[in-house]
Amino acid sequence: MTPRPTRRSRGFWPAGCFTVLALLVLAIIVIVLLWYLLAGRLKEPGPTPPGPPPPTSQSAECPDVMMLSIPGTWESSSTDDPYNPHANPISLMLSVSEPLRAQFPDNRLEVYTVPYVAQFSNPIAFPPDGQASYNNSRTEGTARATDVLAQRHKECPLTNFVIAGFSQGAVIAGDVAAQIGAGNGPIPEANVLGVTVIADGRRTASGPGQPTEIGDPPPAGEGAEVALKGVNVPGISMTGPRPGGFGTLAPKVYSVCAPGDMICDAPRQALNPANALGSLAALIRSAGNPVHALYASNRVDSNGTTATQWTVNWAAGLIENAPHPPHS
């Protein structure tokens, strides 16, 4: 009798299948572990590699101090010589820069007078007065001031700086100083010895980051650009106060404003933006008013010190006490 064939029991796999399955499970475990170890691992940042060491000396051609002088409206030109300015022989800033130039040798002090168009076209003049607009003039002055500071710092990294400006030049000097104080200017704040703005059109005299006011008491008004904030006509933009003032540079900044000078002592909110053209006309007339034109004789203290004398004395003290960087 022939034996019946034995059927293979259901549910049993060959041994090779178990081997494949085990390898597959092992591979999955390895993949998961690698995923956790590599993709899911939080890597803490390490220390920042040190940058190049600061220089210990600079070229013998570099001055110890550079003074940046920025003249006011109608006191400069785009083609003026920055080392021998003659566009306006009675420029107020010359009464500051020339005594300092005479007091210190060239290797101690370099005086650079920013050449820019320095005009303020009257938007309601008919026929047009042919001058550059305030916006274009201010833009050119700011760009030239910024460029020369950046270039000199690149060439002479140990040189320190004194910055001063009058009227439109004070607005430019103040704007550059505010950028430095905010940490995004053309030179580091540590390289600035001090800044003085005379008749600053963006003066606020209150709020954070404001300069030390020279004069007792300081005028109660504010700069014309603050009083006229938001007024914009072709070529003239009133930009208001500087956000944050002068930032970290504020302790080194000084402001001089003569009472009654509408450029820096305009009655608060008195120049009504609703009457933009009339207000701007008043502002333009203020640029030639007697108070604005007399900072060389306006007194800032009980000793009879004038605004320009104070600025010369202030700058001279900074220059005398400035470091003497080694030269190579």
From TrEMBL:
Name the record gives this protein: Cutinase
UniProt GO molecular function: carboxylic ester hydrolase activity
Membrane-spanning residues: 12-38
Alphabetical list of InterPro entries matching this protein: AB_hydrolase_fold, Cutinase/axe
Keywords (A to Z) from UniProt: Disulfide bond, Hydrolase, Membrane, Serine esterase, Transmembrane, Transmembrane helix
Family: Belongs to the cutinase family.
Domain of life, per lineage: Bacteria
